[in-house]
Amino acid sequence: MRKIIAIIDDEVDIGYLLKSNIGSEFFDVFCFQDLTSGIRALPDLNPQILFLDINFPDGCGLDYIQTIKSSLPECIIIMISAYDEATQVKTAKSAGANDFIPKPFTKDIILERIHKFCLSGSSMN
Fold first, then answer.
1. Which domain does 18 fall in, by range?
2. Are 74 and 48 within 8 A, CB to CB?
3. Taken in order 95, 90, 106, 124, is the CA torsion positive or negative?
């Protein structure tokens, strides 16, 4: 069975990079460039993993972690951000994010997290 991965990041290049590196016969990957449309699409997609940025022109990804976890409790949320200050990492984790990856990141880091959370079935919470 194919797994669903969603990416919500306003940087088009990040979405393209992630999709091209993780798209395969095992995953369907969906990218959204704004927070509003991405959050709206999540219930229908029911992703196993969500890569979520923090800063968007239309809001803050941190503000939606608890809402996402309430409606999709099995969804693994991995925050991705260029702003990886300790306070943001702590806020993300305490809100329910499973992991935090600072930008820039490598293909190997992304694939390691997918393997850890999606293929092995574990979570950090």
1. 3-119
2. yes
3. negative
Helix (H, G, I), strand (E, B) or coil at 86: helix
**Residue 118 backbone phi and psi in degrees, to 5:** -95, -40
Type of residue found at 77: I
Assigned domain for 124 exists: no
For 6-20, write each residue's pLDDT tens digit: 999 999 888 888 888
Residue 67 domain flag: yes
pLDDT at 117 over 90: no
**Cα(58)–Cα(34) distance, integer angstroms:** 7
C-alpha to C-alpha distance for 79 and 92, rounded to whole angstroms: 7
Kindly report the number of other CB atoms within 10 A of residue 31's CB atom: 17
3-class DSSP state of 5:
strand
Share of the chain above pLDDT 70, in %: 93
Please list the helix, strand and coil fractions of the chain in percent, rounded to the nearest 5, in that order: 45, 25, 30
- Cα angle 45-117-26, degrees, rounded to a multiple of 5: 55
Q: Report d(CA 44, CA 42) in Å as an integer.
A: 5
